[in-house]
Design a protein that fits this description.
By secondary structure, this protein is mainly β. The protein has four helices and 29 strands.
């Protein structure tokens, strides 16, 4: 069942190059090929300390943001404005390992903490209404990632390696109790978990052991549930499900090496892969050591889009590449970015991007240019409360 992918190793030439990163072509050429332009509409500095925005989720006009510390912030989005409605400090100093709104009850969202807790928040009363933990062994297991399935019945949580075991734990959302777990399919820390967006029984997990496992959790045993396993031979950082234009599913993954892979879920094969150098070239930049893959999303038209950028000059370069015909093509450029982005979400209905990053700032972007007297400008930064920079 284990399929080992024979991927050609690439050498990151940027490691030996001390040249500051810049565009590999003229700005005019960049503007020509990155045909979409996203402009900064508003920003919110959500931390008074040096704390990253690592997690974002959105449903309707509600947005939640999770920091590198134990803080969760809730916002309302109205047009191009962002208003904080609530902040929550979780119970200890452990970091946050994920945030998710429920699909059917948009007043409830979940936050996971690395100390081994999942919290159910009701944003109507700004309260935590339940806490899910596994204490059967006498102590909580360290959590690393989680997701909730398409019908909001099951939460799956991944753990760090604990005495040579790595767990996928399953909780019942309604009964708020532990259902059971898997512990034979991964050999090192789980890094990411993604339920299938339409089938509540299908789950993909990624790990530092290099494996992407796909399960059908309706089966009674772990061995029966494991449909297939892909060995990327690299640490898997992020995975996403995508629907093929002609039917069927694709699975994308981003590695710790900033490689980007696309797999076919039908035959469990690697369709194509892009190295960090490949991505740098398609971003029209010249230093691969500075460039990184941030995340991936789909559109309703079944397009696949990769957000990537350069860390040089405080993340000034932030762009979207579109995957089609087994190639990455320039798509969109973000004008006025000034932080290294660590998380983002895309709202297709409003054609709106929300980004969060290492300066503790949440930014809203759309294609409406906000000033006409300057070529590439956006609204002034809006700082929340206290008027203090978080960096």
């Amino acid at each position: 069942m284990l399929e080992k992918l024979n991927l050609e190793e690439t050498v990151d030439k940027g490691v030996a190059d001390d040249t500051p990163d810049s565009n590999s072509v003229s700005q005019e050429e960049v503007d020509k090929v990155f045909t979409q332009k996203f402009y900064l509409q508003t920003e919110e500095a959500v931390s008074l300390q040096k704390s990253y925005v690592l997690h974002l989720d959105k449903v309707g006009k509600s947005l939640v943001a999770g920091m590198s510390g134990p803080q969760v912030h809730v916002f309302d989005i109205s047009g191009s404005s962002l208003t904080k409605t609530h902040s929550c400090e979780l119970k200890n100093e452990a970091g946050i390992c994920g945030l998710r709104f429920l699909h059917k009850d948009t007043n409830v969202f979940l936050s996971g903490q690395t100390c081994g807790s999942i919290f159910l928040h009701d944003k109507r009363g700004n309260t935590i209404v339940a806490t899910l933990e596994d204490t059967k062994s006498g102590s909580r297991k360290p959590f690393t990632a989680f997701d909730v399935n398409a019908n909001d019945r099951v939460i799956c949580v991944g753990t760090e390696q604990i005495l040579h075991d790595v767990f996928l734990l399953f909780f019942d959302v309604r009964q708020r109790k532990l259902l059971g777990g898997y512990w034979e399919s991964h050999e090192d820390d789980v890094t990411c978990i993604q339920f299938h967006p339409r089938d509540p029984n299908v789950l993909a997990s990624g790990s530092t052991d290099g494996l992407i496992n796909v399960f059908n959790i309706s089966q009674s045993t772990e061995s029966d549930a494991l449909d297939y396993c892909l060995n990327t031979e690299k640490t898997v950082q992020k995975i996403n499900w995508h629907q093929r234009e002609k039917g069927g599913d694709l699975v994308s993954s981003i590695m710790d090496t900033n490689d980007f892979h696309i797999y076919s879920a039908e035959d469990n094969q690697l369709l194509t892969g892009f190295s960090r150098e490949n991505i740098t070239e398609r971003l029209l930049r010249n230093s691969s050591i500075d460039c990184s893959a941030i995340g991936c999303h789909s559109s309703a038209a079944k397009g696949i889009f990769l957000m990537a950028g350069s860390n040089y000059h405080n993340g000034e370069c932030l762009r979207i590449l579109e995957y089609s015909d087994q190639e990455l093509h320039p798509r969109a450029n973000f004008i006025g970015n000034h932080q290294i982005v660590r998380s983002y979400i895309y709202e297709e209905n409003d054609d709106l991007y929300v980004t969060g990053g290492e300066n503790g700032i949440i930014s809203l972007w759309n294609q409406q240019q906000t000033k006409t007297d300057e070529k590439y400008t956006a609204v002034e930064r809006h700082k929340s409360h206290h008027n203090v920079k978080p960096y």
